[in-house]
Structures are given as C-alpha cells and as structure tokens.
Amino acid sequence: MKIKLLRDARIRHHAGEIVEVSPAEAGFLISTASAELMKAPERETPEEKTKPVRETRKK
Q: How far apart are alpha carbons 41 and 1 in whole angstroms?
C-alpha cells in the first residue's frame, strides 16, 4: 500500500516521501494524520479490437 508521509515517521523516512508499507502500518499512520493514502494510477484498458464482419454478395 502506498502512502505519502506528511511528517517524519519511525519507519526512517522523511516528510514528503512516498513509501510502500503494510496495511496495518498505513492504517496507523493515516489515523494519526502522519500520512495520506496515495491513489493507484488508473490503468487504461485497451479497447478490444473486433474483427470486421465479412460480408458476402449474392451473384
């Protein structure tokens, strides 16, 4: 879980750093207003390419 530290923490990082922590540690840091949760970047889903429909002509 990625969080952004708002103040120095015991996990030996400084304010402003974005760090990866366990969910329990993230919950504690967020509850004490020492960190804020970082949103995961939204992934762009590639659009499914559809095969063109083959058309036959009657003779």
A: 13
**What are the DSSP calls for 3-44, one per residue?**
EEESS-BTTTB-TT-EEE--HHHHHHHHHTTSEEEPPPPPPP
Query: Which residues lie closer than 8 Å to 14 by C-beta, 6 or more apart?
Result: 5, 8
Is 0.70 topped by the overall pTM?
A: no
State the 10-residue block means of pLDDT for the chain, 59 residues long: 80 80 86 83 67 79
Query: Could you give the CA distance from residue 47 to residue 5 in angstroms, rounded to a whole number?
Result: 36
